[in-house]
Amino acid sequence: xxxxxxxxxxxxxxxxxxxxxxxxxxxxxxxxxxxxxxxxxxxxxxxxxxxxxxxxxxxxxxxxxxxxxxxxxxxxxxxxxxxxxxxxxxxxxxxxxxxxxxxxxxxxxxxxxxxxxxxxxxxxxxxxxxxxxxxxxxxxxxxxxxxxxxxxxxxxxxxxxxxxxxxxxxxxxxxxxxxxxxxxxxxxxxxxxxxxxxxxxxxxxxxxxxxxxxxxxxxxxxxxxxxxxxxxxxxxxxxxxxxxxxxxxxxxxxxxxxxxxxxxxxxxxxxxxxxxxxxxxxxxxxxxxxxxxxxxxxxxxxxxxxxxxxxxxxxxxxxxxxxxxxxxxxxxxxxxxxxxxxxxxxxxxxxxxxxxxxxxxxxxxxxxxxxxxxxxxxxxxxxxxxxxxxxxxxxxxx
Length: 398
What we know:
The chain is an alpha+beta fold. It has two domains: 2-192 and 278-366, Rossmann fold (3-Layer(aba) Sandwich); 204-264, no CATH class. It has ten helices and 17 strands. A six-stranded antiparallel sheet has the order 2-1-6-7-8-9. Helix 4 crosses helix 6 (259-275). The longest helix is centred in the last third of the chain and has 22 residues, at 376-397. It holds the Pfam family AAA_21. This is AAA family ATPase. InterPro entries: ATPase_AAA_core (IPR003959), P-loop_NTPase (IPR027417).
């Protein structure tokens, strides 16, 4: 399954209550190694970035993307319902998702609502999600033009395949109210979806799979990290500065490694899992504990046909401008900014900047797209607050 684009309606945090992204190449494709070919002229991206300053909704947007991917994989809504809790006061929201699977294009229309946990007390804020109705469309012919990926245009070349509300009673009883009708076409097409939001403790299987191969990339002072000859969960770690190696459980090994090394091992391990299956890796704040070159190295794993032959997609958030300069296309970067109503506006970089020569970091830092840098008045107010606090502290010591 390849997610082409999606739109969520009724998401209060975002401008016009709409959260929408596309994951296909809308610009020209002079270098096909940077994208993945479905059927010409449609290519999907291999790297997508969400950039913005603090508190612009990047992590929230990423969690919604993960939820949409899991919904299209046929997973129950309850398994990722937390992503939607910010919509609970609205009672319902809608999803349009265009995806490609087994040589065909599909469009899913879903109306999702909250239902009371019990009939006795429906006054509580409802947190159980269910599908009110859904319609699944399938293209009657191949998509030959990018404009046919517009939701309205797609319906003109598509035919209705399934409508949830018209299913027979017998068919409906085999479909839980929190599982999408797309589960009816899912066979072995479910993508691997891996997400890294926070620092996680190092796990024994991860070190077994990737620790020795990548540890010294993130910490050159490590000579080797490998499983103990005795097997089990013990590992041998030797630093170049030490004459002796040490043998410990992974919990002790973790305390001897830097946060960047642990993050790097986990990140590369998850990358390999999705690269070998053409899945999705979602990383919140990709620059956490990593320098610019290492961030670029992670992106290069996805950009390369050699390491990414199946079109796996890396979707990351960042507020580190220099990381953006490793992105070689313009149509795979989104800036998230707060508008005057304090809602998040999602701006596609290629819609505002037409020249590929522009350094994306300079565009970000220059505030060329308004909202990518803190307001001067807010920074000045912070400085005044610190000065006032210092004055109070000085007076308190006199």
